[in-house]
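Appendix B, example 12.
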Amino acid sequence: MRIAVTGSIATDHLMTFPGRFADQLVADQLHTISLSFLVDTLNVRRGGVGANICFGMGQLGTGPILVGAAGADFDEYRAWLDRHGVDTESVRISDVLHTARFVCTTDADHNQLGSFYTGAMSEARLIELHSVAERVGGLDLVLIGADDPEGMLRHTEECRSRGIPFAADFSQQIARMNGDEIRILLDGATYLFSNEYEKGLIESKTGWTDEEILGRVGHRITTLGARGVRIERTGEDPIEVGCPDEEAKVDPTGVGDAFRAGFLSGLSWGVSLERAAQVGCMLATLVIETLGTQEYTLRRAHFMERFTKAYGDEAGAEVKTHLA
């Protein structure tokens, strides 16, 4: 399968201040704050849901196509993704804006001050999926992840008009979207991804019941945190898959993106929905054990040993043929 992933491309700039923000605030001067904090550490991490998902798929060898917008400062990030099996030729490079960026400072009490710069992400709306499909010889599935909201709507409408199967995955953008927008984004989706909280929010904002939503999408995939994932289809029994045992719980950031990467890779291989979900849960477990969303290394033998322990010899033998 040729799978394109649309979504944000960003970098996180994370700093640590050894003191307490509260000690620097003067109660009667909060209306005219002017502060500068001398920080001890700076960690720059690659991120963005589109890039995170593609990185995971690249690790599994399924050759994802990243579709998004970045700035002229994307060269180093592009080289990283290219080295890890991601097709970045459909990334739009802005002439005037930098790549989206999250800048955050954390103090000794774990309070945070942060800003998110949208930057080039706003140009995702200018990308046509038709040109992407022509370049790669057609698309079998497009995942429409959190991105510029207008871009998400345009990509969805283009998939619908051109008959390209698509997966709806609003994640962070669901908070700012209204019911009409959400209804447009999910109606006719082959797959609808969300976590449990987002599932309830989708139903609340659209006014559609769980049954009504199931009638409008092919598959509803709900991640359940440490309990794994549930896959629902109209007229079928739900499929529930648990998570492998964790060796450590280091950082949950990017776990949902990793699940999607594993699940989409399973679809690309042509395995069952249950097996694809198992691959997603295994990859998500590797990410939660690692600091950063793209800092894990997929060692085939280690992956297969843990996957087989969690899901059995038959599952392991089937997945091993695709990872070999």
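The longest helix spans residues 273-288. The chain has a mean pLDDT of 94.
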